[in-house]
Amino acid sequence: KRPIKMLLSRAKPAEAAEEHGPSPTQSKKKKLPKLADFLTKRDYIGAITLLEFLQSTGQPQEKSELWVAYCAFHLGDYSKALKIYKKALEDPNADPELWAFLGCCCFYLGMYKEADAAAQKAPPSSLQNRLLFHLSHKFNDEKRLMGFHAKLQDVIEDQLSLASIHYLRSHYQEAIDIYKRILLENREYLALNAYVALCYYKLDYYDVSQEVLTTYLQSYRDSPTAINLKACNHFRLYNGKAAEAELQSLQEMASSSFEYAQDLIKHNMVVFRSGEGALQHLPKLVDVIPEARLNLVIYFLRQDDLTEAYNLIKDLEPATPQEYILKGVVNACLGQQQDSREHLKIAQQYFQLVGGSASECDTIPGRQCMAACFFLLKQFDDVLIYLNSIKSYFYNDDTFNFNHGQALASTSQWKEAEEAFLLVTSDRFRAEYAYLSWLARCHIMNRKPRLAWELYLKMETSSESFMLLQLIANDCYKMGQFYYAAKAFDVLERLDPNPEYWEGKRGACIGVFQLIVAGHEPKESLREVLAMLRNTANPQVEYIVRIIKKWAKEHRIAAL
User: Fold this and answer.
1) Neighbours of 425 (CB within 10 A)
2) Looking at residue 555, what is its pLDDT?
């Protein structure tokens, strides 16, 4: 038997097209075995060539045009098949079953309303029911979908159609159960292994997916869907270069007539190359490959172009966990940028929907969503429960370590927070004020004020460096690290002659003096303390300097 076609959601209309013309058995009876051979080998181009040749010799195959439509459908040329069926239906005596075939073509072309209208004109049949079942899913009409669901029978075509709807609704385990049950009785349906592998991929079991997929690839090494899935598994298990190498064979094989494979290659090459060529390819594929819109949004997010990302996704009604997550991320970024409580609330709700769902609560993305939800609610103890449960999967992930560090610091776990921040290697993150300020605070709380001061010294003079100075000055003062508090207040006072900075510097300098007297600070620091005091034109300076110099003289410290 011939293996099942590529995509489950499309397999049913494609299989139904076998009814478009005489069966191979009938063809043999009419002594046209060559056409049957072409169809058995799935050589639809060869079949069309034969049909056109017979037409040119004046000895056309019976129902030749319908056979051409059948072959065009299987080649993905749905427009050509649609034209043929429309012309055939102009005949008042045409078989009304052609309306179902025409509906399948419209379905593939994304003309769902037209497909629905055509299906309604077809006589009741299992094909018509499957088509209307899929259309109900497209229309998001739950009541209608369940009505057609009830009419499905325990036959392979109907069960495959049901499995495909489970897949499209992200019910991957239910789809796997159906495929495995069919495989037990029909080992020759090798393509089901590819479907099972795709479900495992969606469940993040990439190694299991690859193992199951191998069974199918051993028999069909040229399958674009299988090769592409193998590349995607390699991308998840290894890296983009490994995935790109797998996709090269598909790129060499894809013909000009196989547009779907070419679009798939362009799309995934952008993903494997970390967004390279995104603006060149993805906008054209937004209405062709569902993931193209999501990946274009991700590209804009990485470019900090929140406006474009938001415009691209704002009208999208999320239906899958990935779409909910991405809408949540975009709203969270926009809410933080614009200080918009409305966007932040929307983001929090999207994250909670995914993280709290039965299908996602125990997945890694589901736990990330719950962590994000609690992060926005500033419930950091709860954030850590979820982040700690998936920490082992993200040891080298800069974004994870940055967020983990912030949650740890927010719960005063300074040592662990410092370790998490220091794992971040991205220059972009390490240049952000949020990162620098949190790391500086961790250094100070872990009694390493010199490291915090060095972070300031590496910064260019700006409003952010001024804010970091304020943080160092105040946090060091609170922690009794008066030497670096005095240095920070001294610079602040010279940049902005605010009386509060003098008061801070005065207290910090006296604090350093007290530590020196107690033997907890080197006496050499006195010279620098006096220099900082003399930077201020205030009558209190001379009084403080006099007391320090008197003590130094009494303790025989070198002239200050």
Assistant:
1) 10
2) 83
Q: What are the E-state strand segments in 298-452? A: none
Neighbours of 474 (CB within 10 A): 15
Which residues, 6 or more positions from 295, have their beta carbon under 8 angstroms from its beta carbon? 267, 270, 271, 278, 282
Contact call for residues 435 and 421 (beta carbons, < 8 A): yes
Cβ-based neighbour number of residue 352 at 10 Å: 19
Nearest CA among 104, 155, 109, 154 for reference residue 134: 104
The token pair that represents 447 in the structure block: 């009694």
> CB–CB of 165/174 below 8 Å?
no
Contact call for residues 374 and 386 (beta carbons, < 8 A)? yes
State how far the Cα of 455 lies from the Cα of 467, in Å rounded to an integer: 12
DSSP at 404 = H
Measured N-to-C along each axis, helices 306-313 and 321-338 cross at an angle, to the nearest 10 degrees, of 140
Q: Give the separation between CA 349 and CA 503, rounded to whole angstroms.
A: 46
CB 22 within 8 A of CB 63: yes
What tokens does 423 get?
């794992």
Burial of 462 (0-12, 13-18, 19+ CB in 10 A): exposed
* Confidence at residue 1, expressed as pLDDT on a 0 to 100 scale: 36
- What stretch of H or E contains 207? helix 206-217
Q: State how far the Cα of 85 lies from the Cα of 98, in Å rounded to an integer.
A: 7
- Cα angle 206, 208, 211 (rounded to 5 degrees) comes to 110
What is d(CA 410, CA 396) in angstroms, rounded to the nearest whole number? 22
What angle, rounded to 10 degrees, do the helices at 224-237 and 191-202 form? Answer: 30
What are the two backbone dihedrals, phi and then psi, of residue 379, each rounded to the nearest 5 degrees?
-100, 80
Q: With contact defined as beta carbons under 8 Å apart, do 162 and 193 qualify?
A: no
Could you count the other beta carbons within 10 Å of the beta carbon of residue 25?
8
CA atoms of 475 and 441, how far apart (whole Å): 7
Distance CA 257, CA 101 (A): 22
Query: For residue 79, how many other CB atoms are within 10 A of its CB?
Result: 11
> What is residue 100's predicted lDDT score, i.e. its pLDDT?
96
Predicted pLDDT of residue 255: 56
In which residue ranges of the chain is pLDDT below 70?
1-33, 253-260, 559-560
Q: Distance between CA atoms of 62 and 475, rounded to whole angstroms?
A: 89
pLDDT at 199: 95
* pLDDT tens digits, one per residue of 518-538: 999 888 888 899 999 998 888
Which tokens belong to 522? 């080197």
Quick: pLDDT tens for 15-63: 444 444 544 444 444 454 478 888 888 889 988 988 888 888 877 777 8
